[in-house]
């Protein structure tokens, strides 16, 4: 009853309390104002509260006190709420008052800032008014200073030009050089006054003085004549010293005149010193021929030894006069050689003398580069050296050590002088690295005329190949025998490469590489000439293997298979060696020709030669077995009565194959021996079926004998790649393996022969059904061929054909077997050629030390 009275005070289902506050609001209040009172909890339940405080009727006796306590608590809460409301009302009023005061203060601050801005603008206007006159005075002062500076510089320039004119007239070059540099520096400040008449006049005056100074200095240098005759022209030491001082000062003037005048003076001076060289070694000179190459370079070294100390006495060191004179000498020498060599016809040229001249030029260039150029590479230093007189140094250690000591001492002295001048700021960087390199300046003139040298190399290679091939010598030093001519050919090529690269690695080396390719083509033709006449005649029009004796009837001489093996091994050796030779040439030749070096066509050519020789071996072996194969179909099988061991023709065929195969295994590499087994089997095994089909009126006993023979032949051919010396067991020393492809081919082909023999021995009444089972793909012509061997008449053949439901057709499976020889041989040729083209290392197993 009590619980029912409080039912109306229960919470509503919408989650709101009696005062209508949302649950989230109440949770927020709890977080802000935490309370431990049960009445303040969000999950407060009035019914539970009453039941907890008044669990039974007896507890209702204290309900009056409980109500009083609640009323007291409610009054306290009302007082608190009233007090809080009054405080909040007073705080809101105070906040409004504070807001009004803040707005008033902000307005007052704004007015003060505006007043300050107005005062600042007034102050700025006053300052600008005050400084206006000061700026005008400042501009006037600046212009006045610029004018005074320009006038001072103009005065200095006029005085310098006047002094320069005076010093020039007096040939006082030292002072003139300083004045000329000062004038050039002063003119820089008047670049913006180029339209002023006075400046233009001064420019013209200075230009005239520069031209006059140039003429005077050139005249002074010409007046001393060749330096080698200086002591004769000026016998007194004081006179020579005066000349040195005057010319040294003149060089300072030339530096001030600019690089154009300096280059012109250097060229004139060098030409003056080389006049006697031009008379002796130039066109029409006494020593103009190639035979005077030694004295040509010795002349320059002698000249340099006589005048180097003298020219260093008055020429500035940064002019590099010794190097420039060497460059000018090289230019003149190149002109001489081009004219002298170009005047000769190719057949008139002495190749030995030409090569000696080129070698002497290279020696001179390498020594000059090492002597005059700081960037000389150590690898360019030749094993031979040149002394101060231009002669090749004796390779004996004492002579070389003495020469090196003198040269090092001279180089150390020159470096010390350069460092001293750098410390004294006397060395002007003239970018001497921009000078052309001496390397190749003379030797490059020989390249257009090396045709005679290339022709000589070609002639020597042709002669060597022809002589060696005629001798027919065989080299047995390697794992396999090859013609000695191939070893000699690559040895010659190795030496030829050394000779050529010692002289040049450019166009001439590339042309020589083309001659190597011609040599390889020529050698391949010589190898083809070793083939039997009928085979080589078929290849005369080109290296087409399919044209090599298409009917495979080729009789070999005694031991001719050995010669064919030599051809195969030699072709294999050449094909293995060429890729590494190509790499050697690419390494040594100039980078501009790197991409053009390729010997793949020559490699293919030697592969073709090896394949052609292999085809001749196969054809020769087949020809030697024709008598045994003919015995198969020439035997009168109609009267055969007993089945014995294998027939005589099988035994003889095995004996011939035993000797032949054993010899080839010893002579050929594993790759080519496997190639031989594949080609021979693909060509010969189908002929067994052809021979069987040539038989006539074969009885049933004969078919049993032939089945025994065919089984023996099948065993023989399956063991052919590993046939031993006795012909009955697999060789224990053979490294040749039987491939699954080879076994499958022999098994399938011999199975066809066995099926045909079984059909031949089948009774006539079972022939049709047996043919359908044993030869499901057979044709009418196949069936007709079997009936011909059985000896059936034509009327009987027609009846059986009608029973089989076929008519005679122009082609059939057995007819295809007759043409299978050429098809299978061609397929094996293509497969083995692809296999033979696999890359080999240059240091191969055969004569690996040739290159």
Mean pLDDT: 80
Q: What is the CATH top level name of the domain at 650-821?
A: Mainly Alpha
Total beta strand runs: 2
Helix content: 55-70%
Kindly describe this structure.
The chain is mainly alpha-helical and 851 residues long. Among the domains are: 1-55, no CATH class; 450-619, Orthogonal Bundle (Tetracycline Repressor, domain 2); 650-821, Vacuolar protein sorting-associated protein 53, C-terminus (Tetracycline Repressor, domain 2). 69% of the residues lie in helices and 0% in strands. The chain has a two-stranded antiparallel ribbon with strand order 1-2. Helix 9 crosses helix 12 (321-342), helix 16 runs antiparallel to helix 17 and helix 21 runs parallel beside helix 23 (670-693).
Summarize the structure.
With 851 residues, the chain is mostly helical. It has 29 helices and 2 strands. Among the domains are: 55 residues, no CATH class; 170 residues, Tetracycline Repressor, domain 2 (Orthogonal Bundle); 172 residues, Tetracycline Repressor, domain 2 (Orthogonal Bundle).
How are the SSEs ordered, and which strands pair?
Layout: H1 2-5, H2 23-32, H3 46-53, H4 63-169, H5 173-188, H6 197-224, H7 230-233, H8 237-257, H9 259-273, H10 275-281, H11 293-314, H12 321-342, H13 351-372, H14 397-423, H15 451-471, E1 474-475, E2 482-483, H16 484-503, H17 507-528, H18 533-538, H19 560-588, H20 600-624, H21 626-634, H22 648-667, H23 670-693, H24 700-718, H25 740-760, H26 767-774, H27 780-790, H28 794-804, H29 813-836
Antiparallel strand pairs: 1-2
Helix pairs in contact: 4-5, 4-6, 5-8, 6-8, 6-9, 8-9, 9-12, 11-12, 15-16, 15-17, 16-17, 17-19, 17-20, 19-20, 20-23, 21-22, 21-23, 23-25, 23-29, 24-25, 25-26, 26-28
């Amino acid at each position: 009853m009590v619980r029912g009275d409080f039912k109306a005070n229960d919470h509503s289902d919408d989650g709101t309390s009696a005062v209508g506050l949302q649950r989230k609001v109440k949770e927020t209040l709890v977080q802000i104002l935490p309370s431990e009172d049960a009445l303040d909890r969000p999950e407060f339940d009035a019914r539970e509260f009453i039941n907890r405080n008044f669990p039974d009727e007896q507890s209702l006796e204290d309900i009056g006190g409980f109500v009083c306590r609640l009323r007291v608590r409610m009054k306290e809460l009302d007082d608190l709420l009233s007090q809080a409301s009054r405080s909040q009302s007073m705080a809101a009023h105070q906040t409004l008052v504070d807001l009004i005061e803040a707005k008033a203060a902000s307005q007052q601050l704004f007015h003060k800032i505006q007043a300050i801005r107005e005062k600042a603008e007034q102050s700025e206007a006053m300052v600008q008014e005050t400084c206006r006159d000061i700026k005008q005075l400042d501009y006037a002062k600046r212009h006045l200073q610029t004018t005074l500076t320009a006038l001072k510089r103009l005065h200095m320039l006029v005085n310098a030009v006047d002094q320069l004119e005076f010093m020039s007239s007096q040939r006082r070059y030292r002072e003139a050089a300083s004045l000329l540099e000062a004038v050039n520096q002063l003119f820089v400040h008047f670049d913006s006054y180029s339209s002023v008449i006075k400046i233009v006049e001064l420019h013209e005056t200075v230009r005239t003085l520069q031209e006059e100074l140039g003429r005077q200095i050139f005249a002074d240098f010409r007046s001393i004549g060749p330096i080698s005759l200086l002591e004769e022209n000026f016998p007194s030491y004081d006179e020579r010293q005066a000349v040195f001082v005057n010319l040294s000062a003149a060089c300072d003037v030339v530096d001030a005149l600019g690089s154009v005048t300096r280059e012109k003076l250097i060229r004139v001076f060098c030409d003056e010193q080389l006049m006697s060289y031009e008379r002796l070694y130039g066109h029409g000179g006494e020593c103009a021929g190639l035979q005077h190459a030694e004295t040509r370079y010795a002349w320059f070294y002698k000249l340099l030894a006589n005048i180097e100390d003298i020219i260093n006495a008055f020429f500035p060191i940064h002019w590099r006069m010794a190097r420039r004179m060497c460059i000018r000498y090289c230019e003149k020498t190149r002109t001489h050689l081009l004219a002298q060599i170009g005047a000769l016809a190719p057949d008139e040229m002495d190749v030995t003398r030409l090569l000696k001249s080129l070698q002497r030029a290279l020696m001179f260039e390498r020594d000059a580069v090492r002597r005059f150029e700081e960037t000389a590479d150590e690898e360019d230093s030749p094993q031979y050296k040149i002394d101060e007189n231009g002669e090749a140094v004796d390779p004996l250690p004492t002579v070389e050590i003495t020469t090196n000591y003198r040269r090092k001492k001279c180089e150390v002295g020159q470096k010390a002088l350069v460092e001293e001048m750098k410390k004294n700021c006397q060395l002007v960087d003239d970018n001497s690295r921009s000078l052309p390199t001496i390397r190749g300046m003379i030797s490059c003139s020989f390249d257009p005329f090396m045709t005679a040298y290339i022709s000589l190399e070609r002639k020597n290679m042709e002669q060597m190949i022809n002589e060696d091939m005629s001798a027919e010598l065989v080299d047995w030093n390697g794992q396999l025998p090859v013609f000695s001519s191939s070893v000699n050919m690559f040895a010659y090529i190795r030496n030829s490469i050394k000779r050529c690269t010692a002289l040049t690695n450019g166009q001439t080396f590339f042309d020589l590489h083309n001659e190597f390719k011609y040599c390889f083509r020529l050698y391949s033709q010589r190898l083809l000439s070793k083939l039997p006449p009928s085979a080589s005649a078929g290849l005369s029009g080109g290296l087409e293997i399919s044209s090599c004796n298409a009917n495979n009837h080729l009789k070999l001489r005694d031991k001719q298979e050995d010669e064919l093996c030599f051809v195969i091994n030699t072709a294999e050796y050449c094909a293995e060696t060429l890729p590494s030779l190509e790499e050697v040439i690419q390494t040594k030749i100039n980078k501009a020709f790197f991409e053009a070096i390729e010997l793949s066509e020559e490699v293919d050519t030697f592969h073709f030669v090896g394949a052609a020789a292999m085809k001749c071996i196969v054809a020769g072996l087949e020809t030697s077995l024709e008598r045994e194969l003919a015995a198969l179909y020439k035997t009168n099988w109609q009267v055969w009565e007993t089945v014995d061991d294998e027939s005589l023709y099988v035994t003889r065929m095995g004996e011939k194959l035993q000797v032949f195969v054993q010899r080839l295994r010893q002579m050929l590499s594993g790759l080519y021996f496997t190639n031989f087994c594949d080609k021979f089997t693909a060509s010969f095994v189908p002929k067994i079926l052809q021979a069987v089909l040539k038989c006539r009126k074969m009885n049933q006993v004969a078919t049993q004998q032939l089945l025994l023979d065919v089984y023996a032949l099948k065993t023989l051919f399956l063991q052919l790649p590993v046939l031993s010396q006795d012909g009955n067991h697999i060789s224990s020393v053979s490294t040749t393996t039987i491939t699954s492809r080879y076994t499958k081919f022999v098994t399938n082909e011999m199975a066809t022969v066995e099926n045909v023999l079984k059909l031949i021995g089948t009774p006539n009444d079972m022939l049709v059904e047996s043919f359908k089972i044993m030869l499901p793909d057979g044709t009418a012509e196949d069936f007709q061929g079997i009936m011909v061997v059985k000896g059936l008449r034509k009327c009987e053949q027609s009846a059986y054909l009608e029973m089989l439901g076929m008519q005679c057709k122009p082609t059939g499976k057995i007819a295809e077997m007759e043409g299978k020889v050429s098809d299978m041989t061609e397929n094996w040729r293509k497969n083995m050629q692809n296999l033979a083209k696999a890359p080999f290392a240059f240091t191969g197993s055969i004569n690996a030390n040739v290159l």
